[in-house]
Amino acid sequence: MQLFLKAVMIFFVTIVIVIALALIGDVVRDRQDYRAQAIQDIAANVGNAQTFAGPVLVLPYVETRVVTETDQNGKSVLKQIRTDKRQYIFPTRLTVSGSLPTGERARGMHKVRVYEWKGHATAQFNTQLAADDASVQRTFSKPWLSYELSDPQGLQGVPSLTINGVSTVVRPGAGFRSGNGIHITMAAPKPGDHLTFDAALTIALRGTQSFSVLPLGDDNRIDLPSDWNAPKFVGASPEQDRVAKGFAAHWRVSALSVNAQDPFILGKSVSQRPDLPDSSNIETDVPGRISVVFIDPVDAYASTARAVKYGLLFLAVTFAGFFLFEFMKRAPIHPIQYLLVGLAMAIFFLLLLSFGEHVTFGLSYLVAAIACVGLISWYLAGVLGSWKAAFGFSALLAALYGVLYGVLISEDNALIMGSALLFVLLAAIMTLTRKVDWYAVSKPSSGWKGLFGSQSETRK
Questions:
Q1: Of 40, 238, 362, 457, whose CB neighbour count within 10 A is largest?
Q2: Where is the signal peptide (predicted)?
């Protein structure tokens, strides 16, 4: 019965610590919200996450179709049906290039990665318009040659656009629909015309955290070098050249491999899509988009949030170790002492978050772990009445912190490492207790002076 009561007390102590961990998790989310607000404030001045789409030639026309209908008297009559339509013509070949030098902007203690794309986009158009026939006639209006941008506030200077080598003046807006970007109007073609021309755009565009290209050509070639050493690519995987610093990425994709044209026609303009402070929904938000995300490989808030999820595991392992120590050494530990050690372990995650806002995640983890392991070691020396026992237990706790750090920084192997850790810990506990008669242990006559006995009596 004493064993059962002790287990119940430890359970309630665990609930208290879990509540503390939940509160710390709320603090992490609040700090993430503050950082997201800092990103939005900087993006409002520099430019949001940018998506470059285009060019696309949009030809508005009126289609007059002659149909034969039967009137109420049963006679066949000819009737003209006029319909407003648009024809979208994409480049047969699209080449997008330009460097992406990066920098930092700070809002308080939060630093945000910004970039300036010094870009060039060359497109070749080659298409044959359908000719009129006896049943269908088309009357074309002036078409738009349109480029879309997520946030034109990031434009540096005036983009330069040439058509077949002749400079033209661009106008703001997507032109053919509501949305941000630049466009020009061209001379209205005639049915049956063969449209062949080259469009070359030179542009300087600033943005925050991510840069994307929508490969709208039939054949797309995208070359993006940068000085950022830890890019994350979303969408089609690029080929990369070896460079001393940063990356040089190259994509060679066709309209057959990335379905970007149809969603572009049917969807919203890229400027009407939500801001993207991270890369979690880039591909689903704009199908076919190729993106480079400039984020720190180890984000303090994301890593701390992941660490807090392991807090209950830490607590369970530590309390199980305490319980086994009580049994092995016949040194009862009071539930209040369980509580204090559990709170010290919870404070570790708060220290990790606090230091992580000012130094690298690895350094903040090291400082927080040393502080908490040192405090617990000093406390256990008094509780257990032995520095040797306290150091032994603290060494196991330090090893546990080391394993957790490995799990946190190895995102791809986190599941297998966490599963292996659980298996090893459970195997160790089962090995140590496989010959224990728990019915005998729970009896006062078992030789244990009671799970709630005083520590001083046990040590005499």
A1: 238
A2: none
Q: What is the pLDDT of residues 171-198, one digit of tens each?
A: 999 988 888 999 999 999 999 999 999 9
> β-strands 93-99, 219-226: how paired?
parallel
HSE-CB at 81 with a 13 A cutoff on CA atoms is 10
Bridge-based pairing of strands 194-208 and 160-163 is antiparallel
Shared-domain flag, residues 31 and 53: no
Domain presence at residue 392? yes
Q: How far apart are CA 152 and CA 216, in angstroms?
A: 20
- Report how far residue 88's alpha carbon sits from residue 107's, in angstroms, rounded to the nearest whole number: 43
- The pTM (predicted TM-score) of the whole model is 0.72
Identify whether residues 310 and 443 lie together within a single domain: yes
Q: Supply the DSSP string of 269-314, one letter for each residue.
A: -GGGSPP-SSSTTHHHHSTT-EEEEE--SS-HHHHHHHHHHTHHHH
Domain co-membership, 166 together with 284: yes
Q: What is the pLDDT of residues 274-318, one digit of tens each?
A: 444 444 445 456 667 888 988 776 677 777 887 888 787 777 777
The answer to whether 138 and 86 have CB atoms below 8 angstroms apart is no
**In this structure, is residue 44 part of a structural domain?**
no
The residue written with tokens 């938000």 in the block is 285
- Residue 78's SS3 state is strand
What are the tens digits of pLDDT across the range 197-233?
A: 999 999 999 998 889 999 999 999 999 999 988 888 8
Q: Which domain holds residue 239?
A: 49-294
Of 223, 292, 216, the residue nearest 259 (C-alpha):
216
Cβ-in-10-Å burial (0-12, 13-18, 19+) of 77 comes to exposed
Distance CA 44, CA 51 (A): 16
Q: For residue 97, give the CATH number of its domain.
A: 2.60.40
Task: Give dist(CA 357, CA 364) in Å, integer.
Answer: 9
